[in-house]
Amino acid sequence: MKFFLDTADVGELREAAASGLVDGVTTNPSLIAKTGRKLGDVVREIVEIVDGPISVETISTDAPGMIKEGLEFVKIHKNIVVKAPLTREGLKATKALASEGAKVNVTLCFSALQALLAAKAGAAYISPFVGRLDDVGQDGMVLIRDICLIYQNYDFNTEVLAASLRHPIHVLEAAKAGAHVGTLPYKVFQQLYDHPLTDIGLAKFLSDWKKVPSA
Question: Where are the beta strands (DSSP E) in 63-198?
C-alpha cells in the first residue's frame, strides 16, 4: 500500500518525507487556502520534497475549464496528477486529459457506480471518501471493498486511493480491502507508528541494559 500525505503544509510534509515512507501527496483547494500562499508556489515546493505523484485540484466546474487548468498543472512538473471532481463535466475532462497523456485523480467519489464511470473515463486514481460516508451513517469501508472488487473483475488500471481516512483503523481496513493508496493527514500518518507496548518494551530493554556491567 502506498502512503500519500494529504497536505499543503510543506513543513509537516518535510518531516513526514524524512521517514522515507511517503510515496506521494494529495492537495485540494481547502488545504491550499490554509497556507495563504499561491497554488503554483506551494506545488513547486512540494515537488522538490516528494518524488512521487502530486495531486493538484482544478477549480473550474465546466469541462473546458478543467481541461485548461489541468494542462497548465502538468507543465509544472512531470509528477503532477490533475484532480477533477466526479461530476458529468469532471468525467468529460478526465477523458480528455487522459487522452492527452495526463494522469487524473477523480475525487469526491461516494458510490461504486461513480467509480466504475471514472475507470471507464481513464482515471489514473479514484478517491472514495471513507470518513465523509461514515459521517452520514454509512460504512465508508464498504465502498472501498466494492470498488476494489469491481476493478478486479474488469482488470481496470485505475488505482483505488482511499481518502478521508480519519484514524489508523481506517488505514488498516483500507489496506485489508486492497486499496492501492491511502492518503493520510499528517496526524494520522504519525499515529501509525504508535503502540503502548512498543514504548513499554523499549523502556524495559533500556532499563535492563543499564544494569549490564561496563567492560
Answer: 80-85, 104-109, 125-128, 159-162, 181-184
